[in-house]
Amino acid sequence: MTALTLSTAGAATLRADALVVGVAKGAKGPVVAPGAEAVDKAFDGKLAAVLETLGATGGEGEVTKLPAPAGLKTPVVLAVGLGPVPEKDESYDAEALRRAAGAAARALTGSKKAAFALPVEAAEDAEAIAEGALLGAYAFTAYRSGEKDAKNSKNGGGASQAGGAKLPLGEIALLGAKPRDKAYKAAAERAIALTEEINRARDLVNTPPNDLYPESFAAVATAAGKEHGIKVQVFDEKALAKGGFGGILGVGQGSQNPPRLVKLSYTHSKAAKNLALVGKGITYDSGGISLKPAGHNETMKCDMSGAAAVFAAVVAAARLGLAVNITGWLALAENMPSGSATRPGDVLRMYSGKTVEVLNTDAEGRLVLGDALTKASEENPDAIVDVATLTGAMVMALGNRTFGIMANDDAFRTSIHEIAEEVGEQSWPMPLPAELRKGMDSPTADIANMGERMGGGLVAGLFLQEFVGEGITWAHLDIAGPAFHEGAPYGYTPKGGTGSAIRTLVKLAERTAAGDLG
Fold it and tell me: What are the residue numbers of the active site?
């Protein structure tokens, strides 16, 4: 895990493998950002000109490496683009700082230590930089042979693993922060706790499904609960059968790895509100009997990203000591075809007592979530938020980087959207059109698990709403697009699992604890 320190040292005097400075995009060329004054002085005031000569513009995420001149203790200067210069009397946007720090950390893979001299005007800036750098320094290395030897080598963070892969940046020294200031210390502690849990969630999403299945995921949650004072209850297949969880059992019955429902309970003595989080945890989704075609199943280990997000958010809340009671529900199953699998046309009796005609076994996430939402509703929380990689239709609507938000309360939906934008997660509010409900009418059961093809993401939201307790405020986050990134890394976003929605859930918990959500 990459280390973070707040340093009082000057940019010219700190010893590190690299010194990171910011450069913005000005009207007439690159502009050196605050924090890099000492570095610019070492370049005789010509750092911007040198960068422009090398083709740098200051555009977001742009990285330019320079040999350091005399007067600096680091051999390399890395200039990272921050995007447009802020308007007069405005500061650099937190997300711009976060993304720039992430891009720099990725570019310094293999380095032991780097100093970050990006613009810091307040503790919030330091937190954004720390978050971005720690998330950017992420690498999934569990299955790399030679990792152990690399970690034990004399080069430490600069070591290479088998096959030439380098280890992430070893240490981040954040300059311009105030180590003795309470606000800065709290910002650093929050950044560390949050990013460690996001990166743990990324690890879970990236873990191959032969190693991460419902039982093993439940074991990870149980171990984390013991470490952080979270009560964990695991419903195994016998308990699920006894309790009548027909949705979860119906999805998992085709697999040799039986399903689980995991309840994580974090409580605080001063809490006035109760928040329930529900996560879809399909550890591998083949589509079941409605088998996915080749080209659509290779990344389906990521179909438990919602459960990973809920798990990470509950643990982060516990580590931060938030004054809110949070219950996390992980609905875990593996959707496989076999002689015992649910068939299209089967009818399942859900935990709520409703019957569902299964028209498509690849619309399985809503079945496990339906049971978990009903169970969560029994405790009458102030609000429920479910998170799921639920529909390809949402990806078609919003693309690969934006998640959709649906809710039974417009104000709550707006609050979550604003929170997501604040923490740098792209999202968009979506409707729940009542006329789409009729498409799920079944001649056999209370409801079918499929409806109209057009607006499929909204249809899925309407299905879930059927299982939310009366009078309970509820929101649904469809993270099918941003949960798993298949393209080249950018900013602090790696290839593979991203940890989508975790920052939004944690900020929601903080707002709830502060009484800002009513």
Answer: 292, 366
